[in-house]
Structures are given as C-alpha cells and as structure tokens.
Amino acid sequence: MRSYTLIAPAKINLYLEIIGNRPDGFHELAMILQSIDLADQISVRSLSTDTIRVHSHHPQVPTDKTNLAYRAAELMVKEFPDSFARFGGVEITIDKHIPVAAGLAGGSTNAAAVLVGIDLLWNLGLTQSELEELGAVLGSDVPFCIAGGTVIATGRGEQLSPLPNLDNIYIVLAKYRSLEVSTAWAYKTYRQQFGSTYIKDTASLIARASAVHSGPIVRAIANKDAADIAKKMHNDLERVVLPEYPQVLQLRELFASQPGVLGTMMSGSGPSVFALVESQQQAEVIKQQIRTTIPNEDLELFVTRMTTHGIKIASSV
Ligand SMILES: C[C@](O)(CO)[C@H](O)COP(=O)(O)OP(=O)(O)OC[C@H]1O[C@@H](n2ccc(N)nc2=O)[C@H](O)[C@@H]1O
Ligand SMILES: Nc1ncnc2c1ncn2[C@@H]1O[C@H](COP(=O)(O)OP(=O)(O)OP(=O)(O)O)[C@@H](O)[C@H]1O
Questions:
Q1: What are the GHMP kinase N-terminal domain coordinates in residue numbering (predicted)?
Q2: Whole-angstrom Cα distance, residue 178 to residue 45?
Q3: Fewer CB in a 10 Å sphere around the end CB: N or C, the chain?
C-alpha cells in the first residue's frame, strides 16, 4: 500500500481587483496570488476498502463530505472510476497549520494536494493543466494552489499566468481564531454596494484584466522590490470587510504603525491581515510588539515568507 505526504502552502493576495459580474453569479477578477511558507501537511494512502476517509486533529476542520479535500477525492473517483476500482479507496490525513477560514486558501490547498496525491497513487500522469482543470471544479483558488508561486489570476480566479517568482520577502500574519468571514457574503456585499462601477462589456473586461499584466505592481514584482510591491498592494474586498469587522481594521492600523512594515493588506476575503517587512529579524520584533499590544490569546500570529512552490512531495512510502 503506497502513501504520499505532501506540503500544501497557503496563499496571500498581493492584489485583488473586482472588475465585473459574471452570468454564473461569480465575479471577474484580476488578482496577484502569492504562495507562502505557512503550510499544511497532507498524507494520502490507498485503502483496501472502497471508501474515502478524512482525519484531522484540528477542531475546526470537518472530516465529512463538507471537507474540500474529501470532495477532491470524490471528484477523482468520479473522473477515474477504473483506477478507483483497481487501487481502492483513499485515506486523507490533514495536519493543519494554516488558520481556518482565514482568506489563506486553507481548504483549497488541501484539495489541490489531494488531486496531486491521488494522481501519484493511481499513476495517472496528469499534466499541471489537467490538474488545474479538475481543481477549478472544486473552487476558484484550487487551480492556483497546485503549482503556486507568484501568479496573475483572472476570470473567476482560475486563469493563471506565472510572474517572476518571489521568495525571501518576510511576512507577519495575524488572524483572530474565532473570527470568520464568509467569502460569498464579502462578494455579495461588494456587488450590492459597488456593482454599479463594474465593467459591463466583454472587450473592456479583457482590456482591464490585461492592463493588470503591465500594471505598476507587476513591474515592482519584476524588479523584486519588496518596498515597491508593498506600496502597490490592493484588495477591493477591504472596502466591505473593514467597515463590518473593526478587529480587522484595528489589526491593519496596528501593522501600519510598526517601524519596519513596508505595507499591510487583508488577504482574500479576510479576516487575516498581513504585513510585508524588511527582514526576518524585524518580522519577529513586530510579531512580539503586536502580541504585547493585543495580549488576547484568540489572536494567532505567524512569521512566514513568500515561497516559489505550490504542492510539493515531502515523502513517499
Ligand atoms: C477571495 C479569494 O480567496 C481570493 O483569492 C477567492 O476569490 C475565493 O476563492 P474560493 O474560496 O476558492 O471561492 P469559491 O469556493 O470558488 O467561491 C466561494 C464564493 O465566493 C464567491 N466568488 C468567488 C470567486 C469569484 N471570482 N467570484 C465570487 O463571487 C461566490 O459567491 C462563491 O459562492
Ligand atoms: N480542508 C479544509 N481545511 C479547512 N477548512 C475546511 C476544509 N474543508 C472544508 N473546510 C471548511 O471551509 C471553511 C473555510 O475554510 P478555509 O480555511 O478553506 O477558508 P479560506 O482560507 O478563507 O479559503 P479561501 O481563501 O479559499 O476563501 C471552514 O469554515 C471549514 O469549515
């Protein structure tokens, strides 16, 4: 019975612009997604029975069909019934380190790891783009999580074009454990409040998405200039989340006031907030400073950094 253990990194959004509404109810986006070192470990193992099982020690991670990793395995069973009949079921173990419901693509990266893991277990030899296509069935962030790195994502978030890789830029990340923001709520509220500003015709949508490719933050990324990247970060969803969640606003303001912070932003639909900083040493100092100012144990704080990879094999037995 073979098994694989995979590293499944979280992501942050360096840029998120909502440019239009789609007939399927989703939104046209222009984003820059960045993998970070903060990662879960996902183990996949073949079972002699025809079941899918999910284990996790984390109290906020469901182990039933609502787990996106479970749904990834179910999708593989549906797509490759002959391999399922030949190799049997799959046991998935999620060693969770990424804060849950944080806007860090925690569930999405777990699902991406299961797609990659089952591809290996069943010797399917799927290409990256085939894996990404399967990922898009599960969620908008899943395709990015497969190869990770630094990427422009357009469409619903599933159309990817790689940018020059960033690494060694340090990040301090904060999230209140008990605070959750619904992604669907964030997009719906944005549409209600700012939908009138959406681009309506397809040609202008395409033009706007491609303008981001040559925009100022992409130039900053090409120059690997952390201070400039930090200055050009943007997230439209802050416009609806910050007024509704004062704790998120407070974290953002606290980060912004710390010496050594190059820039700060909410990730995805929140509620996690991150700051780009000059060095690892400074990141540790800032983390301590935030901890002293907010001694609330509900606040999770991490020092992490940008990384160049998505799902990676840690070991196989
Ligand atoms: C906020 C981000 O994390 C930024 O990277 C993503 O846009 C959301 O990615 P995700 O969680 O994988 O999103 P999905 O699971 O596909 O969708 C969750 C919900 O978000 C809304 N949604 C998501 C993506 C998108 N382009 N438009 C949307 O309106 C939809 O209401 C959907 O019901
Ligand atoms: N494998 C998983 N890991 C964490 N949460 C999961 C998982 N599968 C399902 N969930 C459920 O999904 C909800 C959102 O969790 P998740 O950590 O994926 O959010 P997120 O980081 O905000 O995702 P995204 O950035 O893609 O919008 C949780 O409340 C949890 O109940």
A1: 67-149
A2: 32
A3: C
